[in-house]
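Journal club prep — side note

Before the paper discussion, L.F. wants everyone to see what a predicted structure for a comparable chain looks like in token form. Sequence:
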Amino acid sequence: MTTLTAPSRSRRDLAGAPFLVAARGGRPERLPVWFMRQAGRSLPEYRALRAGTGMLQSCLDPELTCEITLQPVRRHGVDAAILFSDIVVPLYAAGVGVDIVAGTGPVVAEPVRTAADVARLPELHPEQVAPVTEAVGLLINALGSTPLIGFAGAPFTLASYLIEGGPSRNHERTKALMRSAPDVWHALLGRLATLTSTFLRAQVAAGVDAVQLFDSWAGALSERDYRTYVAPHSARVLADLADAGVPRIHFGVGTGELLGAMAEAGADVIGVDWRIPLDDAARRAGGTRPVQGNLDPAVLFADPASIEAEVVRIAAEGRRTPGHVFNLGHGVLPDTDPDVITRTVELVHAQPV
């Protein structure tokens, strides 16, 4: 595998950015904050801009992607931008028959459940995600001193969509395949690890300043199953980025019991949902890595005093960790008041570090 080369904007220019300082285990001048799914969803300007354009089409329009990514940075003053995209974008770009159906989510035309299905999966080549890397280039020029986070879905989460044919509450087909046909399972996860690595390395080569690996559905697994069937493939993706020179964040929902195993997979920062205290999460993750999180997204619908109390509590827990990037414990909910998000950013920035 070739060594990644730095983009035209030197990453040294952002060495003092609070987000990057915290992600590398330092104590920045202020507590940094960004929000998962901050690009889009809750913003009226996002809904106006995307009217009549499908999700995947939006993610593959460089100028549209750039503008959507910038909107929350302008409005909220967050300390990092997250590339507007979707975890199934690399599947779609590679030629997998997948679409994002409003009100449902990703839907796969031909589910993958046999060795022959796995063998038919197309590979992803960097040139197939040129619209994404072009968007990164536009953003590098527009963001100035604000870091840009790239991301991808982890192999397990992508596999679940491919096997189930869409979102699943219980992941029954996925778990059945893991046990009934482990050779098929590991072949599929291996293919998806390669695809994910290719997608993330393309983003890094284009100039992103950090990456986040989303394992949205890993919390459905026991620690034993995670270590046996998932961790080796996520570890391979993270290892493929070891020479990238950017912080690697690993996040999953409902993964409090998996934090130790997820940390062992090799990320630099461990994302934490709202179900566990942040300082406890840091200990479970080995006590040496910075953590990211972990305000419950639903708290943003509460009264101002309640929101402030939660921000103060989480910031205090973060001061007892090896490093803290403030975030939600999952994504911004669509009906969240944007003004509340802005005030929350101001509250976070007012906390002692």
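L.F.'s comment for the group: The chain has a mean pLDDT of 95. Keep this in mind when we get to the figures.
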